[in-house]
Amino acid sequence: MATTTFERFRDLHRRGDPLLLPNAWDYGSAALLAARGHPAVATTSLGVAAVHGRPDAAGATRAETLELAESMVGLGVLVSVDLEGGFSDDPAEVGELVRALGRLGVAGVNLEDGRPDGSLRPIAHQREIIAAAVGHGVFVNARTDTHWLGTGDTMERVAAYEGADGVFVPGLADVGLIAEVARSTALPLNVLFGPPMDKLAAAGVARVSTGSLLYRAALRGALAVLDNTPPPIQISIPTYQEIATMLEQRR
């Protein structure tokens, strides 16, 4: 029996063998990551916002995010979309957005509880958002910004979001604390790229996202070229023709 997009993406989340999920900021970066063999590629809200000159995490890039998601689903990889806080405080509107993404073929979404003013959505409200988002054939990763914003109780939030398909705690860097969070929940735990992958695997992590790191590293590489200084890691730069050919294949 054929598996669904949701099932294939869910099955990539394995404790002790975490999925490395790279985050793209436009079609070209997504296509490059897909061509490299990653089974799934996500978007980064910071990268998308920066490309379009909009503020991040302010609900300002709904149309741009949807356009990017639609372009990515044809790349032959599973696609996860960073929806910030859902681009709405209305659970019904968030649910309809996730439903629409599912119809496009998107495999997963991130929904965060952090708000532009640096506070967290009330737990009850965020639970309503999550409840409206699940059940549409899309993997719902519930992100809590307790560590990111330095407020709230991480364990309380993780426990409250058990209705989601996964939980994401960006800002966690201490492997011991990561292991404690992983043990506290039945959901697959997602953290940001940073600590060694083998240590994250031993801690019970199921998914490791690069977040905005790749976009910021691309900018660092550009500055290194202009400054005539080598980047921290010596890499071969894709040629103009390689990129042009990749884009031509989309037509």
Automatic annotation (TrEMBL):
Key word Transmembrane helix present: no
A GO term for molecular function: lyase activity
Keyword set, alphabetical order: Lyase
InterPro entries: ICL/PEPM, Pyrv/PenolPyrv_kinase-like_dom, Pyrv_kinase-like_dom_sf
Keyword match Lyase: yes
CDD domains from the UniProt entry: ICL_PEPM
This protein's name: Isocitrate lyase/phosphoenolpyruvate mutase family protein
Organism expressing this protein natively: Nonomuraea longicatena
